[in-house]
Specification:
216 residues, globular, 10 helices, alpha/beta
């Protein structure tokens, strides 16, 4: 049961670490069960699915976009999004800033760093991230703020995860000191215990909370 999994996970994760429930492909009923237990942070990969759920669920939910998103779809989520984890381009940040201005909002974002060699995992390099953070165009923006970084570790080889999380933590420490970052989003159901050891502030949990994904 979702309730049992939720309370078991809560006991294992320190209170200072945010649990992001990855609700991709989960039905409304499953999300409502966690909501009734007091959980408010949910993550989605696709705009269409997020919009459908946003319309049907309570408006005090904090929605996180954790998947890659096309610029032309940002306009749909900017009015309510809590945090975008997957930013990789300055052009996208410019679009977010422009739309957020219309709604008088400041949108918090994370830069997605590539920490493994798997083709399915996207992200940018340390140098590319610094280029964005040091760019005068970004520095002039008032309606978007980069507050941390996110990364996805190897799936097939768990032994690599330690080095990948160690590297991301190193970058986070540097960015925290230089840019004031305070969020490190890393760790999923299969490796969140390792991520916690390396200083993650947000763990993204799907199957460990909901069980296997269901069809909407």
């Amino acid at each position: 049961m979702i309730e049992n999994r939720f309370f078991s996970i809560k006991k294992l994760i320190p209170k200072n670490i945010k649990i992001l429930a990855v609700s991709k492909n989960q039905n409304i009923s499953s999300i409502e069960k966690l909501y009734k237990l007091g959980h408010r942070d949910f993550g989605e990969n696709y705009v269409k699915e997020m919009m459908e759920k946003y319309k049907k669920l309570p408006k005090d939910i904090h929605w996180h976009m954790i998947g890659r998103i096309q610029n032309n779809k940002l306009k749909y989520i900017i009015p309510f999004i809590h945090l975008i984890h997957s930013v990789q381009k300055l052009e996208q940040i410019q679009t977010i800033n422009k739309i957020a201005l219309k709604y008088n909002r400041i949108i918090n974002c994370l830069l997605q760093i590539k920490i493994c060699n798997e083709k399915s995992k996207s992200g940018i390099t340390d140098q590319e991230a610094c280029n964005i953070l040091e760019n005068t165009i970004y520095k002039s923006m008032n309606n978007v703020k980069i507050i941390g970084i996110m990364g996805m570790a190897s799936f097939q080889e768990l032994t690599k995860v330690y080095n990948e999380f160690s590297y991301l933590r190193k970058l986070y420490n540097e960015y925290k000191k230089k840019y004031g970052h305070h969020i490190l989003s890393m760790g999923m159901s299969r490796d969140y215990n390792i991520a916690i050891k390396y200083g993650s502030t947000i763990v993204r949990l799907g199957t460990s909370l909901f069980g296997e994904r269901t069809i909407l």
